[in-house]
Amino acid sequence: MTGLDGLTDLLDYPMYVVTTTAPDGERAGCLVGFASQCSIDPPRFVVWLSRENHTYQVACRGGHLAVHVLSPEQRATARLFGEETGDLVDKFARASSVSACAGAPVLTDALAWFVGRVEARLDGGDHVGFLLAPVAESPPGHPWAGRLLRLSDVTDFSPGHPA
Fold first, then answer.
1. 60 — phi, psi (to 5°)?
2. DSSP summary character for residue 2
3. What pTM was computed for the model?
4. Do residues 116 and 97 lie in contact, with contact meaning Cβ atoms separated by under 8 Å?
5. Which end of the chain is more exposed for a tag (fewer CB within 10 A), N or C?
6. CA 99, CA 121: separation in Å to the nearest integer?
7. Which helix (H) or strand (E) segment is 76 a member of?
């Protein structure tokens, strides 16, 4: 346990599904908890991917990531992208998606999403931050009034790869 654990144990941050496509057409996606807006002007968002994750390997070859938010009622989608590994399973065979900007796969049942161009990669230790500049987003005016999927909604998941 580190000094940081006391603070992070109190947090219940949003969970995201991040997807990407490599130039050779390989698609990947995973459930991510380490992500945040990091600049207002210009707009920027950073997503942290574990070096152990299959999605990280594919994202390193691609230039865009799609970031999706889900509701707690979409645990099945979160479980698919959080517990299965793209090393063994084609997650997109079980999740409805369309190809968006730069070929990034967008989950059609997500509450909201955006596609970001990778501007930089940041070494954060066992995770690498992908700094994203938004280039496309879900249509405005989504009628959602509920809450988003959060860490407390997925603590019973068994990750497809160690963090």
1. -65, -25
2. -
3. 0.89
4. no
5. N
6. 23
7. helix 75-83
**Phi, psi dihedral angles at 101 (to 5 degrees):** -50, 130
Whether residue 29 contacts residue 105, with contact meaning beta carbons closer than 8 Å, is answered with yes
Whether the CB-CB separation of 37 and 14 falls below 8 Å is answered with: no
Write out the chain's pLDDT in tens, 163 residues: 567 776 667 767 899 999 999 999 999 999 999 999 999 999 999 999 999 999 999 999 999 999 999 999 999 999 999 998 888 889 999 999 898 888 899 999 899 999 999 999 999 999 999 999 999 998 776 666 678 888 888 887 887 766 6
Radius of gyration of the chain (CA): 15
How are beta strands 127-137 and 44-50 bridged, if at all?
Answer: antiparallel
What amino acid occupies position 102?
Answer: A
Conformational region of residue 150, where left means phi above 0, alpha means psi within -120 to 50, and beta covers everything else: beta
Structure-block tokens of residue 24: 């050779």
